[in-house]
Design goal:
Strand order of the largest sheet: 2-3-4-5-51-50-1-49-48
Strand content: 15-25%
Number of strands: 62
Oligomer: single chain
Largest sheet: 9 strands, antiparallel
Distance between the termini: 93 Å
Number of helices: 37
Shape: elongated
């Protein structure tokens, strides 16, 4: 019952229904403060209960879902009062560490060892615990509770055997710890463990002594904590007291007939409590020879002196259950010194009983002993709690998915058809109900929603309950979109037409109820492609052809239940694995049983089937090096030894190849998800289904933007600044060689750009029509190019939706209505209901949380009991979990910003009134009034979304805390603020809107915590910052979704990612590389459940994750709060860094933190692409972004040339129509890196224009030098970064000229060097510089002569730079002693005038060639000089920008005029 695995931001909520889920308790654990209780069930779920420490009444709070087998052990992961974390272990080897406060699965692993008992023990009395595990293996394993990694191994040198019981303690007056172990054969072993053993990782620790005692198959062993001298050992037939010194037997007590002892513990030195398998507790007083303080200790006991039973703990209404109860004894010393003794009992019906163990003094005991009674006194539990009782106390009852239809018939199977928004529910009476999915959810969850039963369709065909449903078209488009398949407990399989509601065919092939329906893989034979696979409980598997309407294959010779089906379609094999480990290999076309394989060979064949499918589709591609090939060749030729040989030789290598292959798949290729899916969940197969509703916030944002962009033409996209192809192509055209008809070529390029944009638009539109039906199995074709999807044969999908109806908008309406913090802001609530179209929830919503590998936390409607809706939406919602708060805030802010950016009105019953800019046509005054009113409404709508985003991004913590103080909320409810590290991990999320939401939330939270909070964050995370001198250990990093990229190939619109319409592929999510950066989410984690369960945890994985988080978080703090120079000047404090700057980032002598952070960021940027750190990952993007944001802080510690060239290298893909930063749809990883680098370059250039220009000019000079010696050095200059990134350099220069004119004017010569490097000189043959690059001609200091093909630039130091474009030479002349204000060539190009307003001098220059016939060097000499009038003060601007203060204008070949900005003109003659 694990949730769907997705790398997206997924928000689950539960529809529990009126009856509670079953909870057959198999393990129980309580916290030391008696406030938290955790129970594990035989179905694999954990239930967290909140307990009142005074009355011991327990209230179920949430379910933790993820285990696939019965829970055997529950143990606290830390030695603290609250039990913040717990470790669960199941009977199939799964172990999970859960954060009970946050609801997350921190770590999960599947070990080959299966534990039967785990003891948590803290070495040296610290909080950090270690887990001592025993089970059906001959060692004691010591496991770290947070990494679930084996840190120590206690083994036996004498009589190694399975351990039956252990106890760990630290004897008084000793510095080491002692482990007592008892084997199943009755050998007691003693290990002494010290600090040196913890440091010797991998070295087994051998026992120090051992002794055989008469105790077989013990179930528990506990040493008396009060004297550490006596030990109670419990076995099914006896419980015994031993002397811990020599393990001699002191006393023994046999069990009653038909019962067996299960466990026991000391209540005092002379009192013990023992319980049996019936759940009854017995309290005994020990005989005097078992009491250390007695003079008779260790003497032979007399016949009269035996354990005295003086109390029995038993339920009043004892019932027989199929599973024995789970019992735990808890002895806790309270703060007031009281020793509280509790006995906890969990039953198979989900009831938790708490017995308070009575305190009986010796005098009372003597009085009891004098009373001669047959049965000792019985004590009933102090409190009993159960899920069913808590459910009955709820009013109104929790809603189920069909509560509005008929609540008497339970739902046994369900399916949500995404493309049609239809929820299909199979019920216990055999009927199948089809309802509108969204309308159903809205009527169940929101106020002011009406029941929509008009479109309900009921299918009658089964005579017993429906067990499974399948809509084949949702899995692959080869099937008919009107066909639905259902299986029932009546052994039949029905084929339905859901457009008309008719039964097309009923198949009765198997003789057991249908358990599962599957679809064969896409590369099967044509006949099998039209089949579905049916698995029944009679152990048979059948292939039913939907086209031929008959059974193609009936595989019915299996002796045990079917557990797994794998395919080898190219060899026509279907593999059926059974529960006894047998593998049956069937030929699909002929229906013959090819062979039956047992044991290891069966496992190897199944594994090889997985590998061959994921690595190679055929033998030819894999070659003989692929072990999977040898498996199946051995299989075909019935050669089992060849199969074993291939396994030994290559499986390990193949797994490594598979992992590295997965690393190269990028964000783009991951499961894209659908905005909404409804999934049926159940605790076990016998009970009815509950329903989980999963909202994928990222897919919802992408789908909203996708629909928005599909309605825009290319020109509209350009107008809104979403794409900038034409502008970029104009710049790019200047960098290419120009022939005499360059104008035509440029026009042709721009025409092609427009045409490609239109093609892109048509493809987007066609995809929006077809995309809803394209399964994620087509994802490979989608990634190769959008046009490939046009080849998919389309069928008419049966739905009748009005044209103005948007499913995506209605999903957004429902999600925002549920997530919004109602009652926090009354005015905003009014606007949300009346203007934005949102509605309040009817009752508190049972949200959930998806964490590692699909493990889920699901809130129960029982906690807190009776909470009003207003209190839940304003406070209770934000007190559940910090991870849940983070995910919900991200979703709200991202969706609000998305809707604010869209040209649409708010939600109105699913209808959207779109507001587009009015067309320029003749309109009547009434039309204009209507347009004006609609524009006003549109502005109000955008303001509403803006206010909603602001409330949840900035104001929420303060508003909630105000409300908490106002209403005096309970101590149990604490506002769980957003997790800063989670937001840092999403700093460069692949979805732009979620990325911007995470950045806004993180910056708001950093601003809110103030300088002290930021300092504590820096102190916490600086310890994880990797030092640049050491090998950098961040590997395979991904900020939120594991973006391991494939390089972008092709051009045009392939960078634009269009979302698929399905939740994900059929259980195949790319494996995460070791140490990858998770989104705890994420989720948000993108591992496939089985892959992670089999994954062995790496000890350094968490460290590497924290290193990556540290780099990003410190980068954000340094970039955004590193230097507040402006504020420092205003405050005028003695120490300017005290205001906001964190120590270590400031301008003072301590810049160590800035240096280390900048080195780490630079490494991430410059590190070459490796399988562990691919070229395009979100961590590398984050480093690029943070270098750009905080360039002023990092600059002293950076090699600016390397940084700029690396970013330009990433920008070289820019000619492939990369959209702007406001384009919301996800891009391919290469395109995203390009866009981020382009943005970072812009930030760097605008923050430090001088550094950018001087660095680029220096690199251009190096390039020119290299160009002159290219032949000698044998260098291909076309592949260098400076040659490929010319368009990007020109774009940045143009931006700087537009925005930073004062800085550019100081470096005009360097700017000209860069521009002339980037612009092809052929463009300047017949056109002036003002036509080719008009931005540069804004400066009066630059002049160009087309006839002589020369450019002159006046610099700030008074020198003139003369560029000879023909010879590609540059000559410098010291023309003036002060800054040159303007210069201009004469019309014939023979003379040049230069003017300096500071020096008040005008000079004329003439070029002449020396030598015979003028073939020598060209010399420039001054032919005349004038002293000019000073420039009037009124003309001089406040700054020293000489832009248009004065310019030179030639009126003839001999006359030049100085024209001032006030319009005055002075002429001078040559």
């Amino acid at each position: 019952m694990a949730g769907p695995t997705s790398p997206h931001l997924v928000i689950p909520l539960m529809l529990w229904g009126e009856s509670s889920p079953s909870h057959c308790i198999s393990a129980i654990q309580i916290s030391h403060d008696h406030c938290t209780l955790v129970t594990g069930s035989h179905d694999g779920q954990l239930c967290v209960w909140v307990m009142d420490p005074n009355t011991y009444k327990a209230t179920p709070k949430c379910l933790l879902v993820g285990h696939t087998a019965s829970i055997v052990c529950l143990v606290a992961a830390k030695n603290t009062l609250e039990m913040e974390c717990i470790v669960s272990s199941s009977e199939n080897g799964e172990m999970c560490t859960w954060d009970l406060i946050d609801g997350q699965c921190i770590e999960s692993v599947k070990l080959p060892q299966i534990h039967s008992h785990i003891q948590s023990y803290s070495f040296g009395g610290t909080e950090d615990a270690s887990l001592f595990c025993i089970g059906n293996y001959p060692e004691i394993l010591v496991i770290d509770p947070f990494t679930l990694e084996i840190i120590m191994n206690l083994t036996s040198r004498v009589h190694p055997d399975w351990m039956a019981a252990i106890h760990v303690l630290r004897p008084t007056r000793r510095q080491d710890d002692v482990v007592l172990g008892l084997t199943t054969s009755g050998v007691v072993k003693v290990w002494t463990v010290g600090a040196q053993d913890l440091n010797n990782l991998g070295e087994p620790v051998l026992e120090h002594e051992s002794k055989q005692i008469r105790c077989l198959s013990a179930t528990s062993m506990t040493c008396c904590l009060y004297n550490q001298r006596t030990v109670i050992i419990v076995s099914p037939k006896y419980w015994q007291i031993y002397d811990a010194g020599d393990f001699s037997l002191l006393c023994s007590m046999a069990s009653r007939q038909g019962e067996s002892w299960v466990g026991g513990d000391f209540l005092a030195t002379d009192r013990v409590i023992v319980w049996n398998n019936a759940g009854t507790g017995f309290i005994y007083r020990l005989p005097t020879n078992c009491v250390v303080e007695s003079k008779d200790f260790h003497n032979k006991s007399s016949e009269e002196d035996f354990p005295f039973l003086y109390c029995v703990l038993k339920l009043a209404d004892e019932q027989k259950f199929p599973c024995p109860p789970s019992i735990r004894c808890s002895l806790v010393v309270k703060g007031d010194g009281r020793l509280v003794k509790l006995l906890l009992r969990g039953d198979a019906n989900g009831r938790v009983s708490v017995f308070s163990i009575p305190e009986v003094t010796d005098n009372q005991l003597e009085q009891i002993q004098q009373l001669d009674f047959d049965n000792p006194p019985i004590m009933n539990p102090q409190s009993c709690s159960s899920l069913a009782d808590a459910w009955d106390a709820i009013y109104p009852k929790p809603v189920g998915v069909l509560s509005h239809v008929d609540n008497n018939i339970s739902v046994t199977a369900s399916l949500y058809i995404t493309t049609q928004n239809r929820l299909v529910c199979g019920r216990a009476d055999g009927s199948i109900v089809l309802v509108n999915g969204l309308a159903t959810l809205k009527s169940l969850l929101l106020q002011q929603s009406q029941n929509d039963l008009q479109n309900m369709l009921t299918l009658e065909g089964h005579t017993s309950r429906v067990t499974c449903l399948l809509y084949p078209y949702q899995l692959h488009t080869r099937y008919d979109p009107v066909q639905l398949v259902s299986g029932g407990a009546d052994f039949t399989l029905c084929l339905w037409d859901i457009s008309s509601g008719t039964l097309l065919q009923k198949f009765c092939v198997q003789v057991g109820e249908i358990a599962q329906l599957l679809v064969p893989p896409a590369n099967s034979s044509p006949r099998i492609l039209q089949c579905i696979c049916s698995v029944a409980k009679d152990h048979s598997v059948s292939l039913i052809s939907l086209k031929e309407r008959k059974c193609v294959l009936l595989a019915s010779r299996h002796l045990f239940p079917v557990t797994c089906i794998k395919w080898r379609p190219l060899d026509d094999f279907m593999m059926v694995a059974c529960s006894d480990g047998t593998l049956y290999v069937w030929q699909m076309e002929t229906g013959q049983l090819d062979r039956v394989v047992h044991g290891m060979s069966a496992e190897e064949i199944l594994n090889a089937c997985d590998e061959s499918v994921s690595i190679v589709p055929s033998f030819q591609e894999g070659g003989l090096a692929n072990p999977a090939v040898h498996f199946f060749r051995g299989l075909k030729h019935r050669n089992i030894s060849a199969i074993r040989h291939a396994a030994l030789r290559g499986l390990n290598q193949l797994q490594h190849a598979s992992a590295s292959g997965h690393h190269d798949s990028g964000d783009h290729a991951k499961d894209r998800g659908v905005p909404l899916t409804i999934q049926g969940l159940r605790s076990n197969a016998s009970e009815k289904e509950f329903h989980a509703v999963f909202f994928d916030a990222e897919a919802l944002v992408v789908q909203l933007l996708h629909e928005e962009y599909s309605l825009m033409s290319p020109n509209t996209l350009e107008t809104h600044g979403l794409i900038n192809q034409s502008e970029y192509q104009k710049v790019a055209a200047l960098t290419h060689s120009a022939s005499p008809d360059a104008q035509k070529k440029i026009a042709g390029i721009l025409a092609k750009v427009r045409e490609s944009a239109e093609n892109m638009q048509h493809k987007i539109q066609s995809r929006s029509d077809a995309g809803a039906s394209v399964r994620s199995s087509e994802r490979g074709a989608e990634d190769d190019g959008l046009s490939n999807n046009e080849n998919v044969r389309q069928r008419q999908i049966p739905h009748t939706l009005p044209n103005d109806w948007s499913l995506t908008m209605e999903i957004a309406q429902l999600l925002l209505s549920l997530l919004h913090g109602w009652t926090l802001d009354k005015d905003l609530d009014h606007a949300c209901q009346n203007r934005l179209g949102l509605a309040k929830p009817k009752s508190p919503v049972c949200f959930g949380l998806i964490s590692r590998s699909g493990h889920m936390m699901l809130m129960l409607p029982t906690w807190p009991a009776g909470e009003p809706v207003d209190h839940f939406t304003s406070f209770g919602h934000w007190a559940i979990s910090s991870t849940l708060t983070t995910n919900h805030l991200l979703a709200i802010v991202a969706l609000s910003n998305t809707l604010m950016s869209m040209n649409s009105a708010a939600f109105t019953d699913g209808k959207i009134i779109r507001q587009f800019p009015p067309r320029e046509i003749a309109r009547s005054s009434e039309d204009r009034k209507g347009e004006e009113s609609s524009m006003v409404l549109d502005v109000q709508t955008k303001q509403g979304w803006s206010l909603m985003a602001t409330l949840h991004c900035v104001l929420l913590p303060d508003k909630v805390q105000e409300l908490q103080l106002l209403h005096n909320s309970s101590v149990l409810e604490v506002f769980r603020k957003a997790q800063i590290e989670m937001l840092a991990r999403r700093w460069q999320d692949r979805c732009l809107e979620i990325r911007e939401a995470a950045q806004a939330l993180l910056l708001a939270e950093l601003e809110r915590v103030g300088v002290d909070g930021r300092k504590s964050l820096v102190d916490k995370w600086a310890t994880f910052l990797p030092t640049y001198a050491d090998p950098f250990t961040i590997i395979g990093s991904s900020l939120s979704v594991g973006s391991n990229a494939a390089n972008l190939t092709g051009s045009g619109t392939q960078n634009l990612s269009i979302p698929s319409q399905q939740w994900g592929s059929d259980g195949s999510s790319p494996a995460r590389p070791t140490g990858e950066y998770e989104a705890e989410e994420d989720h948000d984690d993108e591992d496939d459940g089985e892959d992670v369960a089999l994954r062995r945890p790496n000890r350094s994985m968490e460290l590497k994750r924290r290193q990556a988080t540290s780099v990003v978080l410190l980068g954000v703090i340094g970039a955004e709060f590193g230097q507040d120079v402006g504020e420092n000047k205003r405050t005028g404090e003695a120490d300017p860094r005290k205001k906001k700057t964190v120590e270590g980032f400031g301008l003072g002598p301590n810049q160590n933190l800035a240096r280390l952070t900048s080195k780490a960021l630079t490494y991430l940027l410059l590190a070459p692409a490796t399988p562990k750190l691919p070229l395009h990952t979100s961590l590398r993007r984050a480093a690029i972004d943070l270098i750009g944001r905080g360039f002023t802080v990092w600059e002293p510690h950076l090699d600016v040339s390397k940084v700029l060239l690396s970013m330009l290298e990433l920008c070289c893909e820019g000619d492939k129509l990369i959209p702007s930063m406001s384009y919301g749809l996800p891009l391919s990883p290469a395109a995203d890196s390009c866009r981020t680098s382009r943005h970072a370059l812009t930030l760097i250039a605008t923050a430090r224009p001088a550094a950018f220009i001087t660095t680029m000019a220096r690199e251009v000079a190096r390039y020119i030098t290299l160009q002159q010696n290219a032949q000698a050095l044998n260098v291909n200059l076309a592949n260098t970064t400076l040659a490929r990134a010319k368009p990007e350099i020109l774009r940045v220069i143009e931006l700087l000229i537009d925005k930073m004119q004062a800085d550019i004017s100081d470096l005009l010569v360097e700017v000209t060097d860069i521009v002339l490097h980037c612009v092809d000189h052929g463009h300047l043959k017949g056109r002036s510089l003002s036509e080719v690059f008009p931005s540069l001609c804004r400066f009066s200091q630059i002049t160009h002569c087309s006839s002589s093909r020369r450019i002159a630039v006046g610099s700030r130091n008074g020198s003139l730079a003369l560029y000879e474009l023909r010879g590609q030479k540059c000559q410098y002349i010291q023309a003036h002693n002060a800054e040159i204000t303007a210069c201009a060539f004469s019309p014939d190009g023979k003379n040049l005038a230069s003017y300096s307003s500071t020096e008040n001098r005008l000079s004329f220059w003439q070029q002449s060639a020396t030598g015979v016939f003028g073939l020598g060097a060209v010399q420039t000499r001054c032919v005349k000089t004038y002293t000019t009038d000073p420039v009037p003060q009124c003309v001089r601007p406040g700054s020293t920008i000489p832009l248009r203060m004065a310019r030179l204008q030639w009126h003839s070949g001999k006359t030049v005029a100085i024209m001032l900005s006030d319009g005055s003109e002075t002429r001078y003659h040559l």
